[in-house]
Design brief:
Elements (H helix, E strand, L loop, with lengths): L8 H27 L9 H57 L1
Helix pairs in contact: 1-2
């Protein structure tokens, strides 16, 4: 089955990297603007704190989503493993019964 809500871990990591680059870019802009003595910063401290808080929330949300997806994938793989084990045990026990009856 294909999971419609699932994304590849590599895609999620790329998105996380892109988000971090975006956040760092915004912070660099704030720092650069505030370092010029004759310029009024475009963003005030409250805006900076808000940006940092929003970025932190985005990172935590993405990380939580990734953990959920990994947990779901882990559970699916373990279920498949046990299913295959059961099938193999069933085939093996059937094979022994045929051999013993000969």
């Amino acid at each position: 089955k294909n999971c419609q809500k699932c994304i590849l871990v590599s895609e999620a990591r790329k998105q996380l990297q892109d988000d971090v680059v975006d956040i760092m870019s915004r912070l660099s802009t704030v720092v650069a603007e505030s370092s010029h003595p004759n310029t009024t910063p475009k963003y005030g401290m409250s805006s900076l704190e808000e940006n940092i808080s929003n970025a932190e929330t985005e990172i935590r949300s993405l990380a939580e989503s990734l953990r959920d997806q990994v947990t779901q994938l882990e559970q699916t793989l373990i279920e498949k493993l046990h299913s295959v084990r059961s099938q193999l045990l069933h085939k093996t026990s059937d094979g022994h019964n045929v051999t013993k009856s000969r």
